[in-house]
Structure formats: structure tokens, C-alpha cells
Specification:
10 helices, alpha/beta, 2 domains, about 300 residues
């Protein structure tokens, strides 16, 4: 199993001691990885109507720089190698992507930013943009029950092995297995079949719709799922094959299980899917769910 070497924690201007910071520090301590913390401060600009904008921005940058210096000292004392930066920008996502390109981290870690529905209709949330554009795995943290995850669940789609996106299953399981190994956590496998119409999105297959989803097809997929689990040495008690609407079922599963991190796949989507949002993106709306998103190979 490969060991994490570099972790990138992305924080906002008002972020302080949050679940993502706790998770990032625990992962860095457990793996020996270098932790880079960057406070990305969105520039306050009222189109020049207020003369105090520049002074306000300078104060926000300085406040974050001082907080990060204090935080870095505490992390150093706990044996964590840490670097910090504060960047004032008008484009948070682009700045984050530039940091990823420069640092080349094994993982980008960030607190989930929950947005009201009306705002999501007008603007694409930052988290959704990162899921779509970030080349490295993205760990979005909503709540931390313990600093290191104890149960890591890989959400897979056991479709026909010749499907063009089938390799994403392997990438999802590999990412989940590496995280579980480094944290001494349990690895579980999850698949959800929608019995009314199956949307196999974000699990590794693209989007496939089959009206009148029959029992024979379900049995066939279940058999492939069991073979997938067997190949990766996941025992039966850690295999979860559910039949229900996908997004709701995943959220219910996370809420009523011991899941600490749900590992899911992202793949390129068409315009309609981008407008409506993916399964992975909508799962983030549920506050109990911490997601590790793995991107498909282009």
C-alpha cells in the first residue's frame, strides 16, 4: 500500500478548529505526511464603493496568517511537519487548483460547505467545482466522530467488466484500501441498486438507465459484486448490497452505520448532469457524510 507523502488542507477566511483540520492533523500524524495548510481568503470587493476594502482585506489576511502561525507551532509540537500560506483571491477554486498543481498532494482535505438550495440554483458550490476539476482525490469532511477513520466504505458499481468506466471501481477500492490500511480501519464495500430505474452514476459506470429493473439483472449484478469483494478480500459481513433510491439510501446507510468515510468515484459528465449535480455531490448535502472522491482517468 502506498503511503501518503503530502496532504493539502484548504481552509477559508473564517475557518478555525474544524472537523477537516482535525482529520488532516490526525492523518498527517499517522502517516508521517507533510501537511500544507492554505487559507484562501476571498477578496472583499464592493466595486470600489467603499474606500476601506483594501484595508479590510489586509486585516483578514493578517488575522489568518497569525492564526496559521499559532496552529503550525502546535502541530510541530505534536511531531507534524507543516507549512502554511495565506492567499487573497477573487477566484477561490482556481487558486485551490493552482495550489494542487504546485504541491501535487496525495489528498486535498476541506470542510464541507453546505449551501442553501436557492444559491445552488444560481451558483455552482465550491465543493462541487472541486469535485469536478481537482485532479487529486478530494476528502470533504462534514463531521468527525474520531480523528482517524475506523470504517472506510468504498461505493462501487459492479457492471460488466468491458464498460469504459469500469476501471473507476478499482481506483475507488484502491483509494479506500490505502486509507483504511494507513488508519488501521475496516474496509467495506457498498452498492445500491435502484429497483425502479438504475442510475449507476459516480460509482464507476457512467449513467445507465434500465426501466423495469428485473430480479434476474439484480441477481447478476449481486454476483459480480460478490466476486469484486472476494477479489479484494472483503469478507461477507463487510459487504453491503442495497436496493433502493441511490442518494437517499447512501445517506441512510451512512447515518445508521459506523461509516467514517465514504469513498466514491467521479467521472466526466454531460451538460444536463452538470446542471443537476451528481450522486456524489448530492450525498454531500447530508451532514453526517464524509466523502473521499476519486476522479476517473480521462
Amino acid at each position: 500500500m502506498s503511503q501518503y507523502q503530502r496532504l493539502f488542507l484548504m481552509v477559508g477566511a473564517q475557518t478555525r478548529h474544524t472537523p477537516a483540520l482535525e482529520r488532516a492533523a490526525a492523518l498527517a500524524h499517522a502517516t508521517g505526511a507533510t501537511l500544507h495548510i492554505c487559507a484562501i481568503v476571498e477578496e472583499f470587493d464592493t466595486l470600489g464603493l467603499l474606500s476601506g476594502d483594501e484595508h479590510l482585506n489586509e486585516n483578514r489576511v493578517e488575522d489568518n496568517r497569525q492564526w496559521l502561525a499559532d496552529e503550525a507551532m502546535l502541530l510541530h509540537e505534536n511531531g507534524i511537519r507543516v507549512s502554511t500560506d495565506v492567499i487573497l483571491t477573487r477566484d477561490v477554486v482556481q487558486t485551490a487548483l493552482e495550489q494542487v498543481a504546485d504541491i501535487e498532494p496525495d489528498l486535498l482535505i476541506k470542510d464541507v460547505q453546505h449551501e442553501p438550495t436557492y444559491k445552488r440554483l444560481l451558483f455552482t458550490p465550491v465543493d462541487w467545482q472541486l469535485l469536478r476539476e481537482c485532479p487529486c482525490p478530494v476528502h470533504l469532511v462534514s463531521a468527525v466522530h474520531c480523528p482517524l477513520p475506523r470504517v472506510v466504505v468504498a461505493a462501487v458499481d459492479p457492471t460488466h467488466p468491458d464498460h469504459p468506466h469500469n476501471d473507476l471501481n478499482e481506483r475507488v477500492i484502491q483509494a479506500a484500501s490505502e486509507l483504511a490500511h494507513q488508519c488501521n480501519a475496516e474496509l467495506h464495500l457498498l452498492h445500491v441498486c435502484d429497483s425502479a430505474h438504475t442510475h449507476m452514476a459516480d460509482f464507476g459506470a457512467g449513467t445507465v438507465t434500465m426501466p423495469g429493473f428485473g430480479g434476474d439483472v439484480r441477481k447478476s449484478i449481486h454476483k459480480v459484486f460478490e466476486h469484486l469483494a472476494e477479489r479484494h478480500a472483503v469478507p461477507p459481513e463487510r459487504q453491503h448490497f442495497l436496493s433502493a433510491p441511490i442518494t437517499r439510501s447512501i445517506a441512510d446507510f451512512v447515518a445508521h452505520s459506523r461509516t467514517d468515510v465514504l469513498v466514491m468515484g467521479n467521472h466526466p459528465r454531460k451538460l444536463l448532469e452538470r446542471l443537476m449535480g451528481s450522486t456524489t455531490e448530492h450525498v454531500l448535502d447530508h451532514t453526517l457524510c464524509n466523502v473521499l472522491a476519486v476522479k476517473a482517468v480521462a
